Amino acid sequence: MPNDQIFKDAGQVLMIGFESDPGPACDALAAGRAGGVILFSRNIESAPQVRALNHRLRTAAGGLLPIAVDQEGGRVARLAAAGVPAGPPARALAEHGEHAVHQWGLDTGKALVDLGFTIDFAPILDVDTNPDNPIIGDRSYGRDADRVIRMARIAAEGLMEAGILPCGKHFPGHGDTALDSHVDLPYVAHDEPRLREVELAPFAALAPELPAIMTAHVVFPALDPEEVPATLSKRIVTGLLREEFGFTGVIISDDLEMAAVARLAPPGELAVRAIAAGCDLLLCCRLQTVWEEAHRALVEAAEADAEFAARLAEAADRVRKVLVTSGEPE
Questions:
Q1: Which of 90, 95, 309, 330 could serve as a FRET partner for 104 with CA atoms 20 to 30 Å apart?
Q2: Mean model confidence pLDDT for the chain
Q3: Cβ(240)–Cβ(207) under 8 Å?
């Protein structure tokens, strides 16, 4: 039998999604094999339905539960069926000025609270410097770091004012990629001085202010010569974000089911490597087989290695302190 605390810690660091039937996710939450949930458009039918779903999920977890959604505005908006307007994309919103950005954060946050969410995976901190970028583009607040810093800060403040935790993404920067990490593994080949001036600047500026930051499945050879995706790089996640930038919040991996990393290793190995790198919460956004394998692998790794068990416990404690205590049971 696994150590009970290790079992709980391994569950606490997993935020899971599901296709349509929430039953297996509820079972995982009740058993302590998952510690959070992310919902997508496929899970949303109406405002009453999503309120009831979030209540069911929270009840299964026994009370407090981090429940997240990607509601950036523009083309990344999951809640249309629940009556939450997408609004303009970040770039267009920023063109309307700071008041409009703050109002977006406030209005979006209030809508999410009303539906039972606790976390919005926004704002985008990526600087849009590549016109051929297939995944960021107008999701970014702008093409220079200072504008992104200013507008992302205001958006985050609006969300927090409404009672929603923001999560900045995608560290250390997805703005100058030519590939979509959902389908392939992008590389950003700039040297370190350029990365610090552009891509890294919003994260360095906002790290002291944000409760959560999401990693990117992107390779940065200048930051880690071993050329592993940032999500799996201890040099990038721990050395840069945690230690140099002084980030004290929760570091969240992008979805471990995305092809950029899923092609590199099985889900269990990815989960162990991401936690070892310094991530605190791992997204497994669709498949039950993925989050079940991730949980098993985390338990096995922690039972076999006291140092990894301590890292897992640290991650789970940070999730509990920063994310779990932010909501209220319904």
A1: 330
A2: 94
A3: no
